[in-house]
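Subject: complex prediction, re-run

Hi both,

The earlier run crashed halfway through, so I resubmitted it with identical inputs.
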Amino acid sequence: MTFSQNADANVFFSCWKSPSNIALIKYWGKSGNQIPANASMSITLKEAYTLTRIKAGLIRNGGGPEVEFRFEGEINEAFGGRIESFLKSVVSYLPFLKEARLEIESGNNFPHSAGIASSASAMSALALCLCSLEKEITGLETGMEAFLRKASFIARIGSGSACRSVYGGIPVWGSHKAVEGSDNEYAVPLSFDLHPVFSEIRDTILIVDPGQKKVSSSVGHNLMKGHAYADARYKQAESNLTAMLVALKQGDWDTFSLITENEALSLHAMMMTSRPGYLLMHPNSLIIIEKVIEFRKQSGSAICFTLDAGPNVHLLYPTGETEKVRPLIDELKVFCHKGTAIDDTMGSGPEKLNCR
Ligand code: PMV
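This time it finished cleanly. Structure:
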């Protein structure tokens, strides 16, 4: 059955809830159509997600996709424009879009200013909705594995790191010799079970500054072109990923912390040493980092930190240590914007919802 033949029921719905993620091994530098310069790895979050619903109708002139986009209930032309050009860029992979009129509604359950990667949750939710629509409209049957792979591929075109949010746990995106089936065009889940010490990772996000990013990630990725340390950085990411896989298998939290922090600081080092250079941390980010390191020394806690391309600090620790680290987190809130800290945990990935 093709879209245009489905004359009696020309309206289709799709709805997905998809989470954000925080990278352990950072993706920073790309070429071509969102091809990463190195393989990356992230923790898929649970509580910070985007909910997207699409109502798709038929247009007969084949000039689609036509799009109406609402963000949190309001027509949003800025986001709508970005979504429209993304949809145009994926028509060759989702040909049904040529005959589609889409009413897209999307919303996050976290504030836009929370410093959480909303493009990862938004683009993965959108890609999953589009792949579900393709399946319903064209009758395409591929099985779950191929479905998720295609959703990850489509999400990547919207925002690189979004391709990892299609999977729960700790997925990898980018070709890497130690990860079976890994590919530059989509993410894959790990092929082994995490050691039980990593089964419940918590992420407390300390919101140091909720403002707009100083530099967009596409500008950041571009600054890696011709960067004096680019080759060394890509090699470092490759060996960090190899070592991280061993740590995750063996339950070695010390190595996990060492690599996670090394990656966070390396990402910021790349930004500081690019031309022009950017200081993305805030003085309070540094105070927090120093206090985390000191607390770990004093208490023997497993807590470690990571950073996205901004000033907010993610604290990662086993859920079993929640009570132990609470006094530290309470102390660190003083260095946060309006004392804001957001609690999240590793999650099991996106969910398809029935929301007609
Ligand atoms: O997916 P993008 O293009 O927004 O890039 C994300 C880059 C980092 O968040 C800094 C790192 C990562 O791997 O998520």
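The radius of gyration is 21 Å.

- K.
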